Amino acid sequence: MKLTFNKTYFLFFTILFLIETLIALFIKDGFIRHTFGDYLVVIMLYCFFKTILKTKPIYIAIVVLLTAFTIEFLQLTNLLELLHLENSTTAKLILGNTFHISDYIAYSLGIITVLIIDYKNKQL
After folding, report:
1. Looking at the chain, which runs of residues are DSSP E strands?
2. Hey, where are the domains in the chain?
3. What share of residues in the chain are helix, strand, coil (percent, to 5)?
4. Alpha carbon of 119 to those of 18, 40, 52, 85, 113: distances in Å?
5. 123 pLDDT exceeds 60?
6. Percent residues over pLDDT 90 in the chain
7. pLDDT tens, residue by residue, 29-69
């Protein structure tokens, strides 16, 4: 693993961050907010790590997926209350506050998507 700066992944990260911000600001419920946003967030995190790290895609994918799964699982607890962040909009956006098993599917599909794209781009 090497520290690096990848302009392409930074561009993708930036675009996805802007999309996620727009979703958070303007879409309050429904498929786009609750499912597609979760799908995109793991892709965004993957792109962030690929911006600064040069390593095998599977390693980054595993770390991002485990992080997303852990945060989702912690939503079963009263973590925000324990951290005294229950009134923080930012904390609720980052950590979430409602557990949904379907989010695991969205996270998994997002990681599968980036791995397929990375694999196909290595073949060209």
Report:
1. 2-3, 53-54
2. 2-123
3. 75, 5, 20
4. 25, 18, 19, 40, 10
5. no
6. 75
7. 899 998 999 999 999 999 999 999 999 999 999 999 999 99
For residue 71, the surrounding DSSP H or E stretch is helix 57-74
Average of per-residue pLDDT across 69-97: 89
pTM for the whole structure? 0.92
What residues pair up with 53 in beta bridges, in sequence order? 3
> What pLDDT is stored for residue 124 in this prediction?
44
Quote the Cα angle for 39-26-17, to 5°.
45
In this structure, which amino acid lies at residue 8?
Answer: T
Tokens standing for residue 47: 């792109």
Contact predicate 65/115, CB 8 Å: no
Cα separation, 99 vs 26, whole angstroms: 22
Angle formed by the axes of helices 37-52 and 7-26, to 10°?
150
Residue 70's pLDDT band, with cuts at 50, 70 and 90, is very high
Task: Give dist(CA 28, CA 37) in Å, integer.
Answer: 11
Q: Determine the residue type at 63.
A: V
